[in-house]
Amino acid sequence: MDERAAISYVTTNGSSLEKARLSCMLDGRPATAEEQKLIGFQNPDGGFPYRTRPGQMSSVAATGFAFTWLDDMNILTGPVAQAAARFLLTNQRPEGCFDESPALAALNPPAWMMPDTLPSQVFNTANTLYWLSRSGLGVSAALNSAADWLEGQQQPNGQYGGFVHSTWLSVAGLALWRGSDHPPATSGLDWLSGLALDTLAASQLSWMLLSLGACGYGRNSYFSKALTELFRRQSPDGSFGSEDGPAFAVHATLEAIRARRISMAGQQHQ
Predict the structure, then answer these.
(1) pLDDT tier for residue 219 given thresholds of 50, 70 and 90
(2) Contact assessment for residue 240 and residue 253, using Cβ atoms and an 8 Å cutoff
């Protein structure tokens, strides 16, 4: 991977928030007060708005996505994250899953944000378990309930239902909360290991690598293969493609830079 080219692409094409994320990531420092103003559109309830459009209702998925920014900006345990975690915890159902507000359905959201649908519930539960475990901002009883519910959605072949993302998020979330040798996590990892890497977009490869690397699977042979495949996808201009289209190429490139750096850190500790 040509990291210099990737950094140049973000610097040239990124928004102010994306450039701030890059700067914090490269310098290993927390965001300044001025940089944190770039995420000042967090709603009063602690959630982040649907489609990240200021003034829209808060969304579980959008709030989970915002944790990516907080992670890049090294403020994963700060006041913004604490408020976001409180919002997420208010959107847990009695059975343990996390779900969007029924009111969100009126906005005709994409399938992974559609309230009261199982694929969306699996995705949002896995993503929420992952981030609340990563940040240490979860409540034990809530996370145990979420993990129990999530394990009940695992198929006999190890896959977690719905979107492919849901499996790597479930694996990572369960590994972080219940241990990397927890059978529902390891069997999910086995299923992922059978995926044809060339069927995944570069942004999906980065997301999977970041999730697996955060929970101790960075030395897995599949991780190494996925990393090699990701590096192969870099475009001549330094960017990486997104499953969501060209408008998200900067975010995909930021994720690729972070995946490379996590892999390098893992090698140093081998």
Answers:
(1) confident
(2) yes
